[in-house]
Design goal:
This protein is an alpha+beta fold and about 280 residues long. Helices cover about 25% and strands about 20% of the residues. The longest helix is centred in the last third of the chain and has 26 residues. It comes from Aulographum hederae CBS 113979.
Length: about 280
């Protein structure tokens, strides 16, 4: 899967790839003494590998394209942890952090948790409300399109496990979020753009409305989602109207994504009180 993701990144001109649970040299034999030449994954001439410090097998890593005109550095104040990697990325006078809840931050994670906010068609996980509240308490905005599958394994239910979140002060610079299904893994890839030095986009209707999820009526939310989907004939249109390929297919899918988001937003407005501003 890593080789496919790296090749796809080249084709799509992706600058940074975040990998979770990567294959590490010697990882099948032991969990410690991952030092020196052992601290590496699958190599590629176009990318530099960045891994957490320490001698324990890392479970996260990043690939950065060698030609990237940016300064990438680890935070000396961040604790050494094989499960976490905090990087500061600075390019053309713009700086943001990757993987920690700090100002101008992007969080990428397989949370392995189902919640109606991002996975309205799966049963809610026992710890999901705590996770949703944590997102809200830390002013993180979810980029995922609710219900858009990120995990697909044979004989298992499709679901949304891999989430992308951004801090509010970076939300207007992160755009074009979408799912990549062709990386050869049961977890789909996610792709988005961090806009540098460009005119800020107009916030989406979802971003303009923040909801108090602690007071949400989730059963009503699920019922409303199903009701709006049925009334809009969403699934029927996908099955009967979707063009086979090309520009028309892309236009149709964009329209369906907008309809889907609108249905989710309307259901949220009916069942979740809005949070107070500020």
């Amino acid at each position: 899967a890593t080789e496919s993701a790296l090749q796809l990144a080249i084709e799509l001109k992706v600058d940074i790839i975040a990998v979770q649970e990567p294959w590490i040299l010697g990882s099948s034999q032991k969990l410690r003494n991952f030092t020196g030449s052992n601290r590496r994954s699958i190599s590629h001439r176009s990318f530099t590998q960045i891994l957490p410090e320490g001698d324990i097998r890392p479970r996260v890593m990043l690939y950065a394209v060698r030609e990237l005109q940016a300064r990438i550095s680890t935070s000396p104040s961040f604790p050494t942890d094989p499960d976490c990697l905090l990087l500061s990325i600075r390019t053309r006078g713009f700086e943001f952090q990757l993987l920690n809840v700090q100002p101008k931050t992007i969080v990428l994670e397989d949370f392995n948790t189902h919640h109606p906010l991002w996975d309205p068609f799966c049963p809610t996980s026992s710890n999901a409300s705590f996770l949703a509240e944590w997102f809200e308490d830390n002013n993180l905005e979810l980029l995922n399109t609710p219900g858009e599958v990120t995990f697909c394994r044979t004989n298992q239910r499709e679901s949304v496990l891999d989430l992308t979140l951004v801090s509010q002060d970076l939300a207007d610079k992160v755009d074009d979020w979408n799912v990549l299904k062709s990386i050869g893994s049961d977890h789909h890839g996610t792709l988005f753009t961090v806009k540098i030095g460009e005119k800020e986009r107009t916030p989406s209707p979802v971003a303009l409305q923040r909801f108090n999820t602690q007071k949400a009526g989730w059963e009503k939310f699920r019922t409303k989602v199903q009701e709006y989907m049925e009334n809009s004939h969403f699934l029927e249109r996908i099955e009967t109207e979707c063009p086979s390929r090309g520009t028309e297919e892309n236009r149709f899918l964009d329209e369906m994504a907008q309809d889907f988001t609108s249905n989710i937003l309307q259901a949220a407005q009916d069942s979740i009180p809005q949070a107070k501003q500020g």
